[in-house]
What does this fold into?
Amino acid sequence: MIYRTNQAYEGILKEAYGLLAGMDGAKLRTAELERHFGKQSILSPCVSDAFQKYRQDWRNPSTHDHRMSFTDQDATLALSTISTFVYLLVDQMIETTSSQKQRGRTNQARAKVTKKGLLKRKQSLAQRVADVLMDHALSGTLASLSANAREVEITGTIHGHLSAALPEIKIEQDPLIRGKGFQLRPDLVIHNGESVVVEVKRFKKIPGTKILEGFAKLERYLEALGTREGILYLVPSKPQGDVVTLAVLREIADGVVTLYIVTPSSAIENFDEVLAWPGWQPNSPLTDY
It folds into this structure.
């Protein structure tokens, strides 16, 4: 069984090398692939941890000592470890493919828009990102995805769109934020002098509870990162009307933060529940910025 899982390990490394590194790995030995993935920052942190675990616990011992014997429990553990690695790596491959495809669509769509049409008033990074998230090039793609589309496909598509529309920014997808007694993983954190957190929520019905859940997460992320602006991106599971951006001020423990909601316009009238949530600044209703 261990040698079978090694074959699966070697096979997925070659497939991943072709996609993530953009080169043909068919003729490379497994050791060469391992060195490449070990030295290059290609794998996400979660995938890298799973990669190192399988390599150290199972592949290296079984490869270097062919006289080793394994129990049924060993086989079960090895199968579980390789399954985790393959699952996480395939997720990253889906994210990468979705991102690459959307980057091409966005570049093509924005090439048709004049530079004059792209000029905007002076904006914060969060306002610029929120504007870009309203592009039809993105909303059209997301609306065409299956209702059962994976989260990695959705966030990968958004990542690709942002990287094409705002090439000067740095995007972290699913980064790990560690603090005293907690670990957090926002969907996206965007940097360009400022830092902005983007929380993505997909909905099938009117997203009242999704907004509350999203805002609660955003507040936690902003507090942990010490930044003052965040974006809640509501993605419908079926085509909707125009996409708009709304801004609201929210009072939290460390002061006031600005939260932007990027949402289909058809959902706006259902935000009364959100405005009733304690902590909104007086005389600062949810408004189109």
